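Q: Could you fold this chain for me?
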Amino acid sequence: MTTVTLPAPNPALVRSVAEQAQALIPQLVQWRRHLHAHPELGWQEAATTAYVARHVEALGFDIKTGAPVIGSKTLGAPEEGPAHTGCIAELHFDRPGPTVAIRADLDALPIHEVDTQGQGHRPAEEGWHSQHTGVMHACGHDGHLAIALGIAQIMAAQKAHLCGTLRLIFQPAEEGTRGARAIVEQGWLDDVDVFLGFHIGLGVPSDTVALDPVGFLATRKYSVTYRGAPAHAGRAPETGRNALLGACQATLGLHALAQSGQPGIRVNVGTMHAGQALNIVPDEARFGVELRAERQHDLDALDPRVQALISGTAAAHQLEADIRLIGEARDWENPADMVAWAREVAQCSGAFRDTVSRYDVRVSEDATLMTHAVAARGGKAAYMVLGADLPSGHHTAEFDFDEGVLGKGVALVGGMVGVVLGAG
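A: Sure. Below is the predicted structure, expressed as structure tokens.
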């Protein structure tokens, strides 16, 4: 692939998409609220996949779901394997042209949503809160899916006037940065000319868009299992090999690495499970380790030190160590030419009143694996933050967002899609 040239925005086309997005708002809200009420955890999004696939297939998209989308190398999937999840939906226009891809994430979080009235939580007050105990769309992915469905509907209606291919990537397991790698490895980004990713909220207020967000943290996440030998904790503890003790020592060492290393690196042991009874030396301990860094090269330098510490601590305690990668994302900043182009489209669209420059998100996002895959082959990629006021923060039981962002998101991102696919 040669380097892609971005077409100049067609103001009339962009305004037309914005007008259609405005008319779609009731439908966008309906989609979002249905999805909000029926959340599913990462790698388990079978019903959500079926829901979005059914809608876009009715619009004329070619559909692939399950194994052709995610393959068999799924990071952090349950031991029994993922459900029939993940969807690639493609709309091929009559004339040849570029391929534009949009990513929308399918998964929810293991949070029990506020579900009683009188607490000021709108989904509960109006009856569209989560129907699944302990699972909640608490990050806005329900809104991302609604925006993608809206763009699909508008582009399908304009099929005679467009060229190339629109590819919708409905990704499982974004939480924990688990799902994108499988899709990249399946080759779904190999022929993409323009990739567009987005997230709702993240502290950006309503009517504002961040076209050049910064602070995407490179990350790797590991599941570690130490295995030793059990023993009677009173009669003969010396005959055992204490996996929990080793895991605790490793945890202290890992956190010390972050404190003594480069600025901007983070190491966190966020989970630990060990032991069966108070009078048994624990023979197995499992813990989860998350590494983050502001720059990819810092993460790459930190990673072998972390693995060496984990392996060395296991050896010192005569334990076996199993280290398994369960999540990954990269750093990312939108290229200057992509930002300038996006700003032109945003001005034509008028969907968002304000823009904010170099907004610092301080999160990890595995869509960055997709942006890098596209950019490495000469394509153009961008990730944007679509502003929406939040009554409570992301990943909380009271999370909700200003639904006005749904129409605005369709107008802006759909306008970008229309500009690229309408240039042939």
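A (continued): The domain at 218-328 is CATH 3.30.70.360 (Alpha-Beta Plaits).
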